[in-house]
Amino acid sequence: MQALGQPTCASELRALAWTTLLVPMCAVYARSACRRLRPGWPRLAALLLTLPVFIYLPCLFNSYHLRLFSTFFHTWLAANKLVLLAFDLGPLKPSLPLLPFVLCAGLPIKLREGPQPTSHSASPGPPVADFLVPCGRSALFLTGLALLFPHTGSLPLYVVHYLYCAQIFLTLDLVFSSVGLVAAAVLGSAMERQFRAPLVVASVNDFWGRQWNLLAVDLLRASAYKPVRDRWGRDAGVLAAFLMSGVLHELLYWYMTLEPPTGEMLLFFTLQAAFHVAERWARVAGLWRPPKAAAYLVGTTFMVVTISELFFGPFIRAGIDVRMIQEAAEAVELVRAVAKRLIVRLFGAGSS
């Protein structure tokens, strides 16, 4: 099996520098092109010139975490946003000021829609409060998980995989909340939260529609669900959205392992689509209305089992889980060492 090179501080900083340079350049070009071209195929042809950049960016990283985030931020979200922009759809608008456009194009953020404060109203501070608690909570629990994972050898498999689910959620929530915090402070605008509480869910519909990765849900709804639903109906639209998500996760598997996709990601999301549709049919027919506690137990168990058997399998066989846990532990140790050095320096300076 092919493997990524060993990440070093120099290699990852170099990749971050290239990303910091190329993403804004592509966003500025996209905004300029869209302000000159009408929505449709000419605008799409102009924007397609940026897609090779977003497809290549994850390959710059050797860190599994940074490669994962680049795949999601750039190859998935940014490319999808630009394709939708070509047809005047999605969260990006050419009328946005330059800085909000660049940040919304390259980062997993979405400006909160609603009335803006007028010049006569009191000027509020930066709307960052929504992200402070999630950042602190996720950082705290991730530290606990990093300390717990070396001692999980005796736990049942599904319990360990549930902890994997928790680590994925907390990592994404920490990164997305941190990005939202900085963007809200820079732009002075409120941002949408991207996660609710996906570790305990009442149904498949609840998980995918209202709890998990809401920016990706919005983009899939605009790019796959609505066009197919308008032509072939609601159930076909649901299947199209899940199939598109499956293809994107197969691409993620290739980025993370450098191995040909196995098809298990596509199978996982096809199964989720089938249960999504079946669950809605059962609710409409009055066949599935369990008590709330039973709904949470069944919904959470279904998600953990299917994720464990189909979603985690390819990554675990490739050893990605071990490498990512190692990277997380190294990150915790780095933060601890830096914090200890700062404390010693501050208290040392104070005592002297």
UniProtKB/TrEMBL annotation:
Keywords: Acyltransferase, Membrane, Transferase, Transmembrane, Transmembrane helix. GO terms for biological process: lipid metabolic process. Its main location: membrane. It comes from the Eukaryota. The chain crosses the membrane at residues 15-32, 44-64, 161-187, 236-256, 293-316. Residues 194-269 form the Wax synthase domain. It is found in: Membrane. Coiled coil: none annotated. It is a multi-pass membrane protein. InterPro entries: Wax_synthase (IPR044851), Wax_synthase_dom (IPR032805). It holds the Pfam family MBOAT_2. GO terms for molecular function: O-acyltransferase activity. Signal peptide: none annotated. GO terms for cellular component: membrane. Belongs to the wax synthase family. This is Wax synthase domain-containing protein. It comes from Triticum aestivum.
